[in-house]
């Protein structure tokens, strides 16, 4: 286990939520990129927008958690909301990258809601 | 003149460069949004990618300048490079939002190069 | 009036809120920097933390508004909360940069609440 | 191995560099926080500034790598520079969190230089 996992006060639940956010950033940005390469990119406009939004808020949330921000509850609630809406949009498309993205976004949303609880 | 323009040590050249970056963020994000609404969004993929990249680095550069980062020279040089490449891509399209974006990116690139000099 | 102020759909209220956020980023980062230079920096720890938090959320909010994010309401509400708490902390200190920061944070909080209404 | 590690085109070297950056964000933000709690916070001002700078550029670099930015080389070079300077500052302090931070920053700098090569 890397040293940073054992910092006092950075408990396991935060660590799991940070990992979920990082996974979500990767998957959303991968989906963003893949959508732009699709022949029907015009049809993917909502997905392209939302994966960018989702990657951005997850980046912000992950960074806030690493610095023990006093606003983690509010930030994780916002992050969960964005992840849920991104998941819903992605779930409407057949592309493998969209289906995967929907799954990862839902998982991140759940981790963020638990974090905020 | 708003109070923040007169803080000691935040000289006029930095202020001008910050304003150029903010203008560039707005224009790149507007172009990003407008490209996604175009019927030929697939054709605009490179533009969509680069306007996002450019808005992101300008956000980072503007933020770094407001906090008097010791890395302003390096950051502004990177920002100029991204702005120049985004401008070049935008200049190849006929859409009014792309032409405008090309102009603003070139102007921001110049301000960043001066800042880094 | 610069071109970007007249983009369709980017209405005046958003523009005002973006300007408030940018002003708040500058002022918070200035206060962050100035607090670190104070002899009693240890006493300023909460202020240093909160001005960083506040500059970060304002950067995120300003960026989200320029890209017409569908989450502007939620983001501006969060930004207002952070600005209010930063203002409250800054108001407890006598330093000129803290008093100024408290004022600008309150003003930004109000603009964000109006935006989110 | 999580799914995101096997995305085509996101090769292992990028993955390693992303992980180094994420580790560096965590460690720098932990050091930032710990420095603010030290009795000699005034003496730690340079460290507080640089750990913030370093966490910010690492966040930007990690995000850029996940979206396959065309500017990865330039961004990783900048990230390496900031990490090296942060490492140098941290290495001058006796606090355990500073020594650990120096080590992680040096490791991240090396990963970024390899990435940019």
From TrEMBL, chains A, B, C, D:
It holds the Pfam family Csp. CDD domains: DUF326. InterPro entries: Csp_YhjQ, YHJQ-like. PANTHER family: CYTOPLASMIC PROTEIN, CYTOPLASMIC PROTEIN-RELATED. This is Four-helix bundle copper-binding protein. It comes from Paenibacillus chitinolyticus.
